[in-house]
């Protein structure tokens, strides 16, 4: 979200970033203005419960193979609305955000797809609103399928957990339910066409621009490697204990130990402590900005997180994805279909299986060629600064009468 916020600010607009107080330093560290709203939602507790197996994994593959059956769709909302969606959009956050929007009266609210509080605040203040997608639009596609399936049912059988929760939330603020609150007036799409999920909603394509926070580039990154460099990253969530990774770091590094390659693994102290040995071709680092590291890499092994996958595409790096959570298995499958990478299922990971896949993406030119095609698709999309005018036009079109 940061590059778009910068672009809007540079174009002369007032930009405020509303989120829980725990993110205030992160927001101001990006040079943006933070507005704390609500109590911290305790997302780490939700993810910890999932890691213990109390919440089943979502199989978004059903969205690619046709229209999921109604039981799958209803189960999706029945499971996630009370345990996840409402938890990360708690009442204090929604109430504070509505108060902010009614006082400040923004013209446009841009929200990430899991923060329906942004849609509620937009309706409460008359603002236009848009979702900024950070991956395939699994939530938009799911909602489309669900609404169609719901319309085919008799009224007495129309159970809509998402609509009921959002309707109740809107009524608390004197508003009626509007379907736009579920997915915005339009969406801003950062994925290139080959790895998108199409939805029946107006979308504004925008080039993905990596943002890795304040960082210093170490000298060794600037020196061209003497042999192929392979990045290994399991993402920020796995580093801070909020992720659900079951991947053995030892098996992962052992699988790369006899490659004629320099392996750069981003691990924190806790992750390093769990290793019994470190192969001689592995460089362990606490942190290095991916947008500085990946231009020197010939391959990357990662968990399928949005930032890592987008940055790898930006620099045409073939990927081996070890997906486990949310939409990562879907992204990995879509990437493999383009020829720009391979999928390594976490439950099937052995040193030998990983070695074989990384050897393929390093040794077979087709993977690098496909990665370059994907990069060219991504780079053909307008940069954040270039979409500001379209966002201004859409804001004028969708802005509502202020109540």
From TrEMBL:
Residues 6-235 form the Erythromycin biosynthesis protein CIII-like N-terminal domain. It comes from the Bacteria. Residues 252-394 form the Erythromycin biosynthesis protein CIII-like C-terminal domain. InterPro entries: EryCIII-like_C, EryCIII-like_N, Glycosyl_450act, Glycosyltransferase_28, UDP_glucos_trans. Keywords: Antibiotic biosynthesis, Glycosyltransferase, Transferase. GO terms for biological process: antibiotic biosynthetic process. One of its GO terms (molecular function) is hexosyltransferase activity. CDD domains: GT1_Gtf-like. Belongs to the glycosyltransferase 28 family. This is Glycosyl transferase family 28. It comes from Prauserella flavalba.
